[in-house]
Amino acid sequence: MQKTSTEAVLKKWKAHRETILEWLKSHGYETQAVEKPAFFTPRTQVMKELKIACIMDPFTLGSYGPECRLLELTPEHWREEVDAFEPDLLFIESAWQGKEGLWYRKIVHYSQELFELTGYLREKHVPIIFWNKEDPVYTDSFMTAASYADVVFTTDIDCIGKYKAELGHDRVYHLHFAAQPALHNPVEFYARKDKFCFTGAYYHKYKERSQVFDRFAEKMIQGKGLDIYDRNYGHARPEHAFPWKYKPYILGNLPADQIDRAYKGYFYGVNLNSIQQSQSMFARRVFE
């Protein structure tokens, strides 16, 4: 099933609304219901018209896309793209891939393209934001990228002090993951399977996480069953590959724009957090 637009989602919601109201009325209940859910109220035009040039991975791009005007930059043509778009700000995520994989390792290693891009936008007085969604594990790895930003955000509130000390300024804030209501909502599209579903990766270096997954997976397989959507399916390095025993349960991968097939296609969703000792950092799928 193709991803539907916001209008189609709203139409589906209204249909469910009418069904529920009819049932309530037939059972003697009188009630009022809003015409549209709160998350479909119009955003301010200021936010909608905000032009943000960005380097993001697909899941972040999908979450921010409905909120403003985004332009994904490329390493080869960023200058022409910036000049034509005239962005209000530059948003750099601790991205591993970026647009179509073109920024692979170019953020974490602070490539020449990124150095020239940030310098060019600084000359144009365009604010630069850096968001490290990989804290606290990769704080040091992305510190150079953060040092070229005007404002730094982190998913781990416990890392704020370290950033301030390393960067020599106080423009460091907490920015958590969040759900995007246009994508992550309770509107039903699929017949739900009476099984467990896990979407994500297997990290051998996180021993406790792996052990917990193994214990849970054994019980889930013996019970209702388990389907796995492997984030690194087809291109996993050995340290990110699911153990061979899980091969029969891996259905493939789900790209960011199809993740609702997992969230809405099953009665039970499984979450595991790699980070255990943070006040604020946990997987984005919790919100979604």
From TrEMBL:
Source organism superkingdom: Bacteria
The protein, known as: DUF3880 domain-containing protein
Organism per entry: Candidatus Blautia faecigallinarum
Lineage of producing organism: Bacteria, Bacillati, Bacillota, Clostridia, Lachnospirales
